[in-house]
Amino acid sequence: MQFITNSIEEKNEHLLSTFTGEFVQPVRVYYDLKDKNSVKKVFSKLKCMEFDSTRDRQVWLYQKESKKIKFKKTYSSIPLKQRPIIIGSFFIKNNNEMYLEARSIERALEGIIFFDKYIKKYMALVTDICIINKLFSGSENTANFDSLFAEAVIIDPDKNIDEINSFVDQGKSIGSYFEKTKKKALPLVERFPSYFYEDGIEILNSTLQSRQYVAMQHWKGDKDYTLGDYISKILSLY
After folding, report:
1. Within a domain: 5
2. Which among 21, 171, 200, 230 has a CA at the least distance from the CA of 105?
3. pLDDT tens digits, one per residue of 28-53
4. Phi and psi dihedrals of 126, rounded to 5?
5. Residue in 28, 199, 31, 27 with CA at minimum distance from that of residue 125
6. 95, 16 Cβ separation under 8 angstroms
7. Contact predicate 124/35, CB 8 Å
8. 3-state SS assignment for residue 14
C-alpha cells in the first residue's frame, strides 16, 4: 500500500498545514513501554495500523477505526487519491520506550485518547510530551524532525515549584516571581511530563495550545512574545 505521508502538506498563504487542516507543529508522545509484545499485538489487530519497514515504524492511518476522529477537515473531505494519509507514527526504540510522533497538536491529543482505549496500562503508559515551539512555512524542509527533537530541553515542574517556594521563603510574593520570569523564552523544543492520567486531556490541550499561541505571535513578527505574556493575557480576562 502506498501511504500519503505528511512530507507533502497542504500550504495556505502563510502557514504550513496538514491534510486534515491543523497547523504543522510536531509533537511526540512518549510511553513507558512495559509489554512490547502486547503492544505489537494491539497494533496488528487494528485496521488503521500498518507496519512501514522502510522506517521501522507502525503508521497510524486515517481510516477504519480512526476515521471517526474529527479534525478540522473530516475524513470524507479528503480526496480518494490522497488516502490513506498518515496521522501519526509509532517508533519503538528499545524494550522500555516508545513514542507516537504526530505533525500537529490535535493529532497528538487525539492519538492519546484513541490509543488509550486499546493500549492498557500494563502494556504502556503515556509519560512525557515533547513539542517543537515553532510553526513552519512551505519553503522549510519538514520531511524529518529527528534533529530538532534531539535538541529537546527537559522541563522539570518540580524544579519550578522549588524556585517559587524559595521566593516565598525569602519573603517575596509569587507575583514577583512571575514578573521575574514572565519574559523568559520557551526552548525551541521542550519535553515535559504529560500528567495525562492525573489531570486528563483538557489540561494537556491547554498546555499545548498555549505553546501554539506563542509560536503564532512569533510567526506574526513578535519574536519577544513569551508564555508569560500569554498567561498575563489570559489572567486579564478574569
Report:
1. no
2. 21
3. 999 999 999 999 999 999 999 999 99
4. -65, 125
5. 31
6. no
7. yes
8. coil
| pLDDT tens by residue, 107-154 | 999 999 999 999 999 999 999 999 999 999 888 878 889 999 999 999
Nearest by Cα to 6 from 143, 172, 178, 190 = 143
CA pseudo-torsion sign 195, 196, 197, 198: positive
**What letter represents residue 147's amino acid?**
S
Q: Residue 191 and residue 90: Cα distance in Å, rounded?
A: 17
Q: Which are the contacts of 218, defined by CB distance < 8 A and separation ≥ 6? A: 134, 135, 225
Number of folded domains that form the chain: 1
Residue 2 lies in a domain: no
Q: Is the pTM of this model over 0.90?
A: no
Please work out, in degrees rounded to the nearest 5, the angle formed at the alpha carbon of residue 205 by the alpha carbons of 168 and 234.
Answer: 55
The alpha carbon torsion through 92, 93, 94, 98 (nearest 10 deg) reads: -50
Find the length of the chain. Answer: 238
Alpha-carbon distance of 122 to 144, in angstroms, equals: 31
22 C-beta neighbours (distance < 10 Å), count: 19
4 found inside a domain:
no
* Upper half-sphere CA count for residue 48 (Cβ side, 13 Å): 21
Q: Which segments of the chain does DSSP mark as H helices, in order?
A: 36-45, 105-116, 146-149, 157-169, 174-181, 196-199, 201-219, 227-235
Nearest CA to 112 out of 154, 156, 60 is that of 60
Residue 157's domain spans which residues?
10-235
C-alpha Rg value of the chain to the nearest Å: 19
**Residue 3 within a domain:** no
